[in-house]
Amino acid sequence: MIQFTKEDVKKLPKINRLNLINSATGYKSANLIGTKSKDGKSNVAIFSSVTHLGSDPALLGFILRPATVPRNSYSNMKETGYFTVNHVTEGLIAKAHQTSAAYDFGVSEFDITGLEEQYHDEIYEPFVAKSPVQLLCKYLSEYEIKENNCIHILASIERIFCEESLLNEDNWLQLDKGKVVTINGLDGYCLPKLIDRFEYARPNTETKSMLKNGS
Amino acid sequence: MIQFTKEDVKKLPKINRLNLINSATGYKSANLIGTKSKDGKSNVAIFSSVTHLGSDPALLGFILRPATVPRNSYSNMKETGYFTVNHVTEGLIAKAHQTSAAYDFGVSEFDITGLEEQYHDEIYEPFVAKSPVQLLCKYLSEYEIKENNCIHILASIERIFCEESLLNEDNWLQLDKGKVVTINGLDGYCLPKLIDRFEYARPNTETKSMLKNGS
Question: Chain B partners of A160 at a C-beta cutoff of 8 Å?
């Protein structure tokens, strides 16, 4: 195996270091976060750090880089208290990636990238059309990560919208049926295929496939 | 689209709620965390919450459920200050999933599941053999998530071991070359294939593929 010490990593050119460290922790979730300011300007941005935190209550978290520059997503969700999380599909990757460009504050990436806003019921915040899993989330709190001044945002899941074709009998959402992607590093977009699903693991019991049993 | 309100989610049977909420945030990383107690007992457990937190310094985080019961991984990393993170491959999924069973405190999942310990240089902590990306991490701190009493563990990446075949010229690790998997929900294991890689996004510049340009 090839080895990188901490000193090797420090000596790498910046882009190489970003590539290595961003890909070294494994695959990441690919989500578009939609927000709208109080005066009606919508915003959408890609995030690869949305992580499940708990099911009862239903909570998720994600990481914001140091708040040294104004960030639309963050200021909007603080203003209104809400934001949306929308899974990125194979068909959306180029547009989704383009949202990571440093647009001027106040520019809507919906206008620029060709991603389309979608609205559900009375909800003020924009969802992303053609995304097969869409969540309405409520901003709850934030934890400053002192080690690098990032912010860990905590939110509750208030509403779930999903394409019927993804929903299994046991309420598991089979993401590959919606061509949901995962991110490798900063810029690699990958399409997963389900290979197996296992029953709840118990000591002294063999690992059982749910799929191969036909259940 | 099908819709679940917060009340709908609350009314679901527990397993269904876990399935829905765990799959609603997108794909998760699949990592085996290896530790060893001061008195030499090794331990390995699967985690799906390891997330990149920063590249300079190289930091990652992961979530531990409420520390109401003794947890080997946690107590070992607090004892020695270190742990390993090992990517799960297609060939390791059944053994990796079995580590999630509730074994008695002090039982080594290496002994039970057939996962093999691997050691590098003078490092005390066990890595997982056949894992193509392996990290040595140093425990830094923890943040209690007050909303559900989970713990967000922060750690620095001290050493990276990887198979040469995954490493691109620009230090990006192409995970599909190592058959690294991603997790869908609690128990679905999926194998991603790279579909595209994009250049750094800039305003007023079209999204450019790195692969289709041949670079």
Answer: 3-4, 9, 20, 24
Distance from CA of A39 to the nearest CA of B (A): 24
In this prediction the pTM is 0.96
**Domain chopping of chain A, boundaries:** 13-190
The SS3 of residue B165 is helix
Pick the CATH number of B6-190 from 2.30.110.10, 1.10.1740.10, 2.60.34.30, 1.10.2020.10: 2.30.110.10
Express each pLDDT in B166-201 by its tens digit.
Answer: 999 999 999 999 999 999 999 999 999 999 999 999
Domain A13-190 is found in CATH 2.60.120.460: no
A47 beta partners? A31
Beta bridge partners of B171: none
Residue owning tokens 């590093």: A185
- Which member of B50, B148, B195 has the closest CB to residue A25? B50
* Predicted complex ipTM: 0.96
The DSSP code sequence of A179-196 is: TB-EEETTTEEEEEEEEE
User: CA triplet A202, A203, A207: central angle to 5 degrees?
Assistant: 55
